[in-house]
Amino acid sequence: MTERPRAKIRRFADALTIGPSTLSWDGEMLKVELDEVTSPLPSRIRGEVRLRPEGLNTEQIALDRDDRHHWWPIAPCSRVDVELDRPGLKWSGAGYLDANMGSAPLEDAFSVWNWSRAKIGPETAVLYDVSPREGAELSVAVKFDRFGQGTAFEPPPRRDLPMTGWGIRRETRSDEGDTPKVRRTLENAPFYARSLLSTRLLGEAATAVHETLSLNRFSAGIVKAMLPFRMPRWPL
How many other CB atoms sit within 10 Å of the CB of residue 122? Predict the structure, then answer.
């Protein structure tokens, strides 16, 4: 979460270096080597994250009618190992890797989106609801098998979630009769929230990672003035 000058960024066929940190791909594993300083309270974060996909997905999904923004669930079913020296943390578990790409500012195209990912047995279910500035809303519900192949399913009913501490409305989808609950909010920003949910999808109880992004809030001048404190430029 640090902006760096062009000279500090190097791209290769199988690696990307941004400042002192590097992402590299060896054909079977994505390795992230971190060596950063956190913000706004300075502390060191150093160590490795290793992601091993069970399968790769090659399909990108357009999120807007002008085909300017795409979502790519690259490795929906993966194994992740985290080993940090600073702070001293270590854990392993089920993981997920995706990417959002676009050729125009997000806030020009969308007002809000809600996304979630849940592990359903050996598979992964992803829900993605996007509210564009113009045109109809987009609702995506896909179940991915362990090889990365996706199958669409009917999006379940919408469910309201409690507002965040910054007053952002958020919602998700879950099976008929279910009432999803926020177990823990991991990231709570003026325009964005990431949380863990207890929910039920495709007939199974599940823990979901959920995010809400408010582009209306992001567009506000006071919020943009706050961004450099959370995402500083280097050198400071």
Answer: 10
Closest-CA residue to 192 (of 171, 210, 213): 213
151 close to 142: Cβ distance less than 8 angstroms: yes
Each residue's pLDDT tens digit in the chain (236 positions)? 789 999 999 999 999 999 999 999 999 999 999 999 988 888 999 999 999 999 999 999 999 989 999 999 999 999 999 999 999 999 999 999 999 999 999 999 999 999 999 999 999 999 999 999 999 999 999 999 999 999 999 999 999 999 999 999 999 999 999 999 999 999 999 999 999 999 999 999 999 999 999 999 999 999 999 988 888 888 75
- C-alpha span between 86 and 28 (Å, rounded): 26
**Distance from C-alpha of 178 to C-alpha of 176, rounded to nearest angstrom:** 6
In order of 40, 122, 212, 231, 233, the CA distances from 174 in angstroms are 36, 19, 16, 34, 40
> Are 45 and 86 spatial neighbours (Cβ–Cβ below 8 Å)?
yes
- Angle of CA points 218, 32, 95, to nearest 5°: 75
| pTM, full prediction | 0.92
Supply 188's token pair. Answer: 């709570």
Which residues neighbour 177 within 8 Å (Cβ) at sequence distance 6 or greater? none
Q: Which two tokens stand for residue 87?
A: 């702070």
β-strand partners of 31:
24, 50
CB 188 within 8 A of CB 196: no
